[in-house]
Amino acid sequence: MISIWDGVLHGFVVAATPINLAYCFLGVLLGTFVGVLPGVGPLVTIALLLPFTFSLEPTTALIMLAGIYYGAQYGGSTTSILLNMPGETSSVITCLDGHAMARQGRAGPALAIAALGSFFAGTVATFVVALFAPALASVAIRFGPADYFSLMTLGLVGAIVLAQGSLLKALTMVILGLLLGLVGTDINSGDLRFTFGIPEMSDGINFVSLAMGVFGIGEIIRILVQHEKEGGTIIEHGRVMPTRQDLIQSAGPALRGSIIGSALGLLPGGGAALSAFASYTVEKKLARDPSRFGKGAIEGVAGPESANNAAAQTSFIPLLTLGLPSNAVMALMVGAMMIHGITPGPQIMRTEPDLFWGVVASMWIGNAMLLVLNMPLVGLWVKLLRIPYRLLYPAIILFSCIGIYSVSNSSVDLIAAAVFGLLGFVLVALRFEPAPLLLGFILGPMMEENLRRALTLSRGDPTVFVREPISVVLLIAAAALLIVIILPTVRVNREKVFAE
Amino acid sequence: MEKIKLLRRLALLLASGIVASGIAAAGAPAFAQSWPTQPVKLVVPFPPGGGTDLLARELADKLSKKFGQSFVVENRPGAGAAVGTEYVARATDGHTFLFTSSNHVTVPALNTKLRYDIFKDFKPIVLVADQASVLAVDPALPGKDLKEVLAYIKANPGKFNYGTAGIGSGQHLNTAYLQQLTGIDIVHVPLKGQGEIIAELLGKRIQVGFLVLSTSLPYFKSGEIRPLGVATAERSKFAPDIPTIEEAGVNAFVSRSWLGLLGPASTPDAVVKELNTAIVDLAKDPSYLAVTDKAGMTLVNSTPAEFEAEIRRGYEQWKQVVATANIQTQ
């Protein structure tokens, strides 16, 4: 096996050939565009383009497909910030402070920081992949169901931190999300739960329907109700580029986000989904004034955006070295590799050094291209907000419908999005935050799966969660976080009691 | 404003241009045809990415060129395969077909409440290929061959775990069948897909699983997972050194995992014949063979009648296994 530095160098030689550069650019360009169109995600794009990669060299094909994937991460943050529409799990968090910034006329700095943070994280993650891929692959394998369950528990406790107002309301939303996550087929018995006899519901509620509904459509209804007669635009745009102060404030969060994302992206069981949100939790906890979060804190954009980009890249490690896809897009990549006769697996670094190191190096090059591509586009995207509602919103809803339908060609998903749109409007009107709901929805099913799996493996013995070393550490962290959250509330209440 | 519109249009153009160039390359048909008169849909009842989807896309590409009319893959996943299958059962436009896997027979064997009938609502066209599935174990299990390993598992009832892609999945039915034939007692751990089965095998949390041969070969070569036998009636040309499970000592164990094309019951026999001939003819196309070979698929290219017989056989086999094991899904 070649040494790591030889590997990286070799990778750059492979990735920098004109043809690979061209396809890398095509990939990130396409990715950016599909990411920007609400609801149209990388999954559909890659599925559509798959047959056209058959004639390419496998390395070139994979470089392009990977480019689409992380390009879409960039593009996805654009819709989250401008329109409050997360197209993917990873950009839910960006909506919170990113869209708040947009409403204050700071869409430009938010977009620029997202792009800069992502590039920085991409650089860090590329080196994490290059340095640790071989060793990390074997660590990720030791992560068992009990450990995942405890990780998710830590995640759920963290979800409460997302609350911008009442703790009780945040908790209610987490639980509602968990309940929505119950819809579908029971994994251990095969029984159907809350599907009302609709076959399309047997695999659960579609994430895109829920996210588009409660965030995007709900938000549109709210704005239309508030500004019924004005027919104006969302905001006047302010300065496009971030200030020096913005950059200083974002540096720490971007660094921490990159580290968190790089680490969680390695876990094949959905760690990447947690990364943005883990980073947000950390930033809010570290902030001197946590109350700014949710109201346009730039740290709340820089951290999560860095984290999700880092995770998107390190999740190639379980894919390439273990053949374990961490999400549907990655599963499609396995398909793409298969058609080229390359089976992902532990042997890949040895048998396909061109492919492995070439793709790793292309990630860094692709990220640089994205930065060059996106910085000038920031001004353009911001101008999007000047389009009057009467033109902008029908267009957004049209694109969302196309996006939602294209996930599985199902009209049930469209109806679901409409229903969740109404729910989203009601929630916003009652001042409930939709973010904890989505996190409950994402984490709930993963948690249940791992809980039941761990108990099946331990033959029903619940002590497995404290016997596994990784699991017990995570559970202690969850307990500590819970105490940190609850204590101040208790103290405040006590003061109130004494005051009376 | 204009710039944005232009940009959007460019993006769409770019995307559609790529698609169109593929179709344009297909060229014009050499002769006038009564069918197809419009684009043909190949419905795949699974999400994009798996083996079925992969072969469907390759076929769509080749058939587009052959018929001079575009063949489009449409993924309609859900309920095992029932959502997409039901959609095709109800199609009346003469241009909608089902490209599915042997889930076509296992789903109705498990679920009696389906709103379609695999015999009355469909016309089999061609069983295109078989995919080999391998009974694989953690190499730490002692025994020099399948027989000895099974004996060891049998001597330790309830101690070992097997992973599957979920209740009623092919792996679940295969293992249930194996249990019925050998009397071993192992615990079912429902997982999500082959990726997780491999991860749990490598992590030594489960000991037994059925894996698709082509994607697991590297693990067999590296010795991290041990193959004991292929589930098909004959050895696979991709790993001729692995015996069949039947050869290795489990009498009567055969489990076939196929990929095939069906039309709704209203499909004219002439169209069935035309599609069957077109797909069987692809066996002469080296670029098609390259794709199926790399994906580890063994071409079968049956007649419609042979396909129909296999559907009946498979359905009866799994109906029996499901009844004996008392597996229930909705």
Topology:
The complex is a heterodimer of chains A (500) and B (330).
Chain A: H1 4-15, H2 18-36, H3 42-53, H4 58-83, H5 92-103, H6 107-142, H7 145-161, H8 167-182, E1 184-185, E2 192-193, H9 207-226, H10 244-265, H11 271-286, H12 299-314, H13 316-322, H14 328-339, H15 348-351, H16 353-384, H17 389-408, H18 411-429, H19 434-457, H20 464-467, H21 469-499
Antiparallel strand pairs in A: 1-2
Helix pairs in contact in A: 1-16, 2-4, 2-16, 3-4, 3-14, 4-5, 4-6, 4-12, 4-14, 4-16, 5-6, 5-12, 6-10, 6-12, 6-13, 6-16, 7-8, 7-11, 7-19, 7-21, 8-19, 9-17, 9-18, 9-19, 10-11, 10-12, 11-12, 17-18
Chain B: H1 2-24, E1 40-44, H2 51-67, E2 71-75, H3 82-89, E3 96-101, H4 103-110, E4 122-131, E5 133-137, H5 146-155, E6 161-164, H6 170-182, E7 187-190, H7 193-202, E8 208-212, H8 213-222, E9 226-230, E10 258-264, H9 269-281, H10 286-294, E11 297-299, H11 304-325
Parallel strand pairs in B: 1-2, 1-3, 6-7, 6-8
Antiparallel strand pairs in B: 3-10, 4-10, 4-11, 5-8, 5-9
Helix pairs in contact in B: 4-11, 6-11
What do you see in this structure?
The complex is a heterodimer of chains A (500) and B (330). With 500 residues, chain A is mostly helical. Chain A has helices at residues 4-15, 18-36, 42-53, 58-83, 92-103, 107-142, 145-161, 167-182, 207-226, 244-265, 271-286, 299-314, 316-322, 328-339, 348-351, 353-384, 389-408, 411-429, 434-457, 464-467, 469-499; strands spanning 184-185, 192-193. Chain A has one domain (4-499). In chain A, β1 (184-185) and β2 (192-193) form a beta hairpin. The longest helix of chain A has 36 residues, at 107-142. Chain A is globular, with a radius of gyration of 22 Å. Chain B is of the alpha/beta class and 330 residues long. Chain B folds into 2 domains: 2-27 and 35-130 and 258-325, Bordetella uptake gene, domain 1 (D-Maltodextrin-Binding Protein, domain 2), CATH 3.40.190; 133-230, Periplasmic binding protein-like II (D-Maltodextrin-Binding Protein, domain 2, 3-Layer(aba) Sandwich), CATH 3.40.190. Chain B has helices spanning 2-24, 51-67, 82-89, 103-110, 146-155, 170-182, 193-202, 213-222, 269-281, 286-294, 304-325; strands at 40-44, 71-75, 96-101, 122-131, 133-137, 161-164, 187-190, 208-212, 226-230, 258-264, 297-299. In chain B, the strands form 2 sheets. In chain B, strands 2-1-3-10-4-11 form a 6-stranded mixed β-sheet, with helices on both faces. Chains A and B meet through α2, α3, α14, α16 and α19 of A and α1, α2, α3, β7 and α7 of B. Chain A: The chain crosses the membrane at residues 12-37, 43-70, 110-133, 145-163, 207-225, 319-343, 355-379, 391-408, 414-443, 464-487. Chain A: It comes from Ancylobacter tetraedralis. Chain A: This is Putative tricarboxylic transport membrane protein.
